[in-house]
Design goal:
Length: 426
Amino acid sequence: MEITAIHATPGYAGFFFDDQRAIKHGAQQDGFTYTGDPVTDGFEEIRQAGETLIVDVELADGTTHRGDCAAVQYSGAGGRDPLFRADEFAPVVEGPVAETLVGRDASEFLANVDRLEEIAIGGSQLHTAIRYGVSQALLAAAAAAESTTRTDVLADALGTEPATEPVPVFGQSGDDRYTNTEKMFVKGVPVLPHALINSVEKIGENGETLLEFIEWLTERSQELGPDDYEPRFHIDVYGMIGEVFGGPYDRDEVVDYFTAIEDAAGPYPIQIEGPMDAGGREAQIEAMVELRTGLQEAGVGVDIVADEWCNTFEDVQAFVDAGAADVVQIKTPDLGSVHRSGQAVRYCEGTETRAYLGGTCNETATSARACAHVALATDAAQVLAKPGMGFDEGYMIVENEMRRTIARRNRSRQPELDADEVTADD
C-alpha cells in the first residue's frame, strides 16, 4: 500500500513546557504558573503551553493514519533537543519529510523509519519530536497495510516475542501528589507515584519531607489498595538529593539517607529517579556509579533510575555499559523514531539494568497509545501512564490500549491455538 501524502497540523499537547533550570534555581509558583524570567533558550515564559504537531499519513486506499510530534516537559534541559514549536516545524514535515516518504510502501515500516532517521537539514538530524511523531504515523500505516497490530509490526522489526500480559504501568501524580496517589492506590496501580520532587521545599532541607511522604505512601497503600496489593514505589527527585547532600555519593551521609528511604518504604521496593544532576553525561554516569556502588556495598536495597543526560540510544548504551543504574528510563520523545525506543529496551536485555519505557506528561493520547505498543512488543519492565498530570486519563489510555491489543492478538491466534489443542488430543 503506497503512501500518497503527509500532512501536518499544529495542536496542543497534554501538559506544558517548563523551564527546568529556572525552577530548580528558585522560581516561585504563582498559582499554576511561575514568576520570574526563563533562563533556557527558546522559552518565553517559565511555564508555557505544550504543543504538538499532528501528522497524517495518507495511503492509496484513502485511509489516514496519525502520529503526534511531542517533546518533553523539560525541553532543552539535561542535554535534550530545544523547545519544540509546532508552527516552525510544520513546513519541515510537509516538505523534506513528505518528499522522502511519499511513494514508498507503507508496509515497509523499518525501511521507512530508517529513511526518516537519515533526513538532515543544514547538516543536522531532524528534531526528535518530528521523528517521534512521523514514526508513529508510519507505524499505524504499516499495521493497517498489513491488517495486524502495531505491536506485531514492532515485534517483527525488533525481533521480539511480545508480552502476553499488560506491562506494569507507572502512574505519575504531578504536584497533587497526595490526592492522585490515593487514586492510584484505589486502582491498584503497580508502580507509583512519581511525585514530582523538583525543589528543596518538596524534599526538605535535610531530605526529611520526602521521607515523611514515603512513610505516608506505605501506610496509605494498605488502607486503600486492593487485597494483596504490593506496589513498587518510584520517586523522581530531579537531582534534588544531589542539591541537598552533594557528592561524593558513596559517603556515609548519603548512604544513610538512602537507608532511611528504604526503611520508610518497607516492606515495598522503592526506586529513586535522577538522584543528582551532574551537568553532563560522563559526569552523571560517574556520579551514578559512585552512588550505586556505595549502596551495594552497604547492602541498601534502593534502586536508582537514570534520567538526566540519558536521552539518546547512545546515551542509554553508555549508562547500561557502565552499570550506572538499576533502571534506565527510555524517554521516548528524546529517542526519535519509536523503533529506537524499542531498540533501547532491547539493549537492556541480559544486563543488570531494567528498561522503563517512559516519556513525558507533555505528550498526547496518540503518542501514548503508540508507546503502549512499544512496551508490549519489547515486554519492558514498566511503562509510563501519559499524557497529563491528572493520572486517571493517562492510566486509562495506556492500560486499555495494552489490554485491547492483547485481546485482539489472542482472538487472531485462537484458530491456531485450537488446532494445536486438537493435535495434542489426537
